[in-house]
Amino acid sequence: MLEQTLDVRFTDVSVPGHGPVTTRTYNGTIPGPTLRVRAGHTLRLTHVNGLPPNPPHSGGHNTPHRPNSFNLHTHGLHVSPSGHADNVLREFAPRTPEESAAGAAEPRYTSTVHVPCDHPAGTYWYHPHLHGSTAEQVVGGMAGVIVVEGDVDDVPEIRAAADLVVCINELKVGDGHVPAFTSGSWMTGVPSTFTVNGSVNPTLRLRPGEVQRWRLVAATAFAALRLTVTGEAGDMALHQIAQDGITFPTPVARTTVDLAMGNRADVLVRGGAPGRYELRADGLPGPLMTIEVAGAPVRPPMRLPASLPPGRPFLDEQDITDPDADREVVFHADAGVFTGAFPNAFRILGTHATPAADPGGDPTRDPAHGLFDPACTNHTLRLGTVERWTVRTDESLAAFNHPFHLHTDQVLLTHRNGVRLDPPVWHDTLGLAGGTPGDSVTFLVRYEDFTGRTIAHCHQLHHEDLGMMQTVHYVAP
User: Fold this and answer.
1) Residue 423: is the preceding peptide bond cis (ω within 30°)?
2) SS3 179
3) Residues 6+ apart with CB under 8 A from 284
4) Among positive and negative, which fits the CA dihedral 268, 271, 272, 278?
5) How much of the chain, in percent, has pLDDT values that exceed 90?
6) What are the residues whose beta carbons fall under 8 Å from the beta carbon of 180, sequence distance 6 or more?
7) How far apart are CA 443 and CA 463, in angstroms?
């Protein structure tokens, strides 16, 4: 059993370019502590809510509220979504004003997450996921990494490489704090600051011929990252060995690695010609991290593995239990539906969309159609079945990304924009850029092991807080 206390309170942290910033953190750091477990272990967490009482809220449930309440999501882990495990329907509330005035003790909550004995080894992460407060807390730095150790770590070439977490946080900071999420323009009105392991553009050192394993984590709420490593001697190859915690059968050499918000990628990098290199993301003005290749060369150069223990067996269309039961998800936004600071409706349409308040009216103006309703179960998923989903966005702007994230079960991406992938790739979050048309993906998923109510949603997190979310219910066969 791994026991860890996660203490959440306002902390003054130093952010280069901004000076001291007061923000909500886990244990006073950005990111929070890295949690390392193995398959078959139990993760027992004590959560201390040292935040002040929540301010009053008079808006609906699909507007930001309860900024000082939180809960825990173990993003990507295949664990129970119920009880005191990965249950994002819980609330870890702070003291009430009356309790705070009376000097009551700060409340404590517990999470007990049992990692199955056959859980894939890989890189995962944790963050708060209380509807209405998720975006503001994640862009304040509330995120941390989970490493499940296992078979891939014992591959000789990987065991010989330095194992480095590269957690990329996207922070929204200004005037020494994280501005409250008070309007629909909040996301675009505050520039993002990107940190790696809490620092702005830190420097990593790599010897010629040395191999390092980087666990790349996109702990971002709004920004998708197309990553490259470029330098004086050209691009550095990124040998990807895992996506979203699931190991590939063999390494795949890439010059770019795409991470939507919430994605992870494990890559092996080998130092080549001495010089200065930079980890960069398209569209960002500066580097995320600097890499200095220097020092005595490693002779002979460290080797890369030829094969890997694959993290999960593939599915194929023959495994589908009901070919006529395909599900469709469509990310759609309607402008100017509501009055006030949040005028736009961020909807999930398609199969089992939340019903309209006025079935005979204009669906683009409807105040409920396709928006999150905690009383509505959008998808009932029966354990043991395999289904095919198609998810697409009708967003026309390429810069807008609506990543799809299904809690509890990994999904096997088989097609992107109608083109079959060979081989398919396991994910837990799928980026969908806008365009004419916008992106579409098709995946297969087997519902396994755990019953309970949880969610599927857009991982552009302010969209999730504004209603781009659905309830899923895993039920026994």
Assistant:
1) yes
2) coil
3) 194, 223
4) positive
5) 92
6) 64, 67, 136
7) 22
User: Which pLDDT tens digit goes with each residue over 336-388?
Assistant: 999 999 999 999 999 999 999 999 999 999 999 999 999 999 999 999 999 99
Task: List strand residue ranges (DSSP E) for 173-263, in order.
Answer: 192-196, 203-206, 211-219, 225-231, 234-235, 238-243, 246-254, 257-259
Q: Which single residue is written with the structure tokens 């991406």?
A: 413
8 Å CB contact between 86 and 75 = no
In angstroms, the CA 177 to CA 140 distance is: 8
- Reported pTM: 0.97
Closest listed residue to residue 246, CA positions, set 406, 86, 88, 424: 424
CA-based max dimension of the chain: 74
Enter the tokens of residue 71: 């809960």
**C-alpha Rg value of the chain to the nearest Å:** 22
Q: pLDDT band at 317, cuts 50/70/90?
A: very high
- Is the Cα torsion angle 414, 415, 420, 422 positive or negative in sign? negative
Type of residue found at 206 = L
Token look-up 């223990």 returns 309
Rounded mean pLDDT of 390-397?
A: 95
Q: Which two structure tokens, joined as six digits, stand for 474?
A: 């895993």
Confidence grade of residue 435 (pLDDT, cut at 50, 70, 90): very high
Cα-to-chain-centroid distance, residue 258 = 13
For residue 140, the one-letter residue type is: G
Alpha carbon 155 to chain centroid, angstroms: 27
Does residue 466 surpass a pLDDT of 80? yes
For 317, phi then psi, to 5°, come to: -60, -25
Q: Quote the CA–CA distance of 138 and 366 in Å, as a whole number.
A: 30
Amino acid at 238: L
Amino acid at 35: L
- For residue 175, the 8-state DSSP code is T
DSSP 31: S
Residue with tokens 């590269």: 166
Amino acid at 30: I
Residue type, 433: A
- List residues bridging with 357 in a β-sheet: none
Q: Is the pLDDT of residue 187 over 80?
A: no
Tokens of 444: 């297969």
What is the rounded (10 degree) CA torsion for 21, 23, 26, 29? Answer: -10
Residues 6 or more apart whose CB falls under 8 angstroms from that of 400 comprise: 393, 433, 434, 460
pLDDT surpasses 90 at 462: yes
Sign, CA torsion 88/335/187/214: positive
CB 426 within 8 A of CB 246: yes
Cis peptide before 300 (omega within 30 of 0): yes
pLDDT category of residue 232 using cuts at 50, 70 and 90: confident
